[in-house]
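Example record

The entry below shows one chain as it appears in the dataset: sequence first, then structure tokens.
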Amino acid sequence: ARVAKAASFTTHIYLLQSTMMKLAAFATLAGSAAAFAPAPMAKTSSVASSTSLSAELNGWIPDESKFAWGLPGSIDPIQEFDPLGFAKDTPLGLIKRWREAEVHHGRVAMLAVAGLLVTEEPIEFHPLFERSEVDIGPAVRQLDELDASGPYFAIFLALFIGAIEWNRALTGFSAPEGKFEFQQLNDDYYPGDTGFDPAGLKPEDPEEFATMATKELQNGRLAMLGLAGMVAQELVNGEEIFVNLGLATDRFDPSSVPIQF
């Protein structure tokens, strides 16, 4: 019995030693493999990834040390204009969402200013109305007139705007999956670049693109301020812009439209 126990004990010691030797050999081989692993490959992959992301972002590489993470839009004579400090210590995702909102609000404002001036005196180009030769009054109330004369127009307009916004959401916004923030943009999405460029005006050169993006931002900012002033003026005195400036004759007859001014 003693001999059997001794043999069993010896066997266990042998197995334990054998296992330990195998683990030690595996650790040595793993360390050797790690020592000879091509470390520069990871760096190259990181650089390639950064370069690819930069190409997708029109040459913009987010830089936390720069104003607004390096996004274009800061120009002379007042560079980095941010009196309320919205851009200070702001996360990248939030800066991108704010820029997305600024760009699109600016585009809407530019279209609105153009539409407002074109449909009023003295140009009066309003093809949506049957009586195109009649002065239909301040543009700020023209949607009310359209809704009163054709109730289905408001539905069509809502569907049209919804389709545009749906396409923008599919292009730039992340799917609500996993770790998700409200209105989160895709990492490879440049704020405002939805891919809509039928005239092919988008520059390929990153510097030229940044210059054009800055011009668009400045015009959009001016349009938002201008539109706010125009709408306020028309709501206050009910006069068209050029009529209020004394540059056009007031031919508007409130009784000629289906709503009360």
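Notes for this example: Confidence is low (pLDDT under 50) at residues 1-51. The chain has seven helices and no strands.
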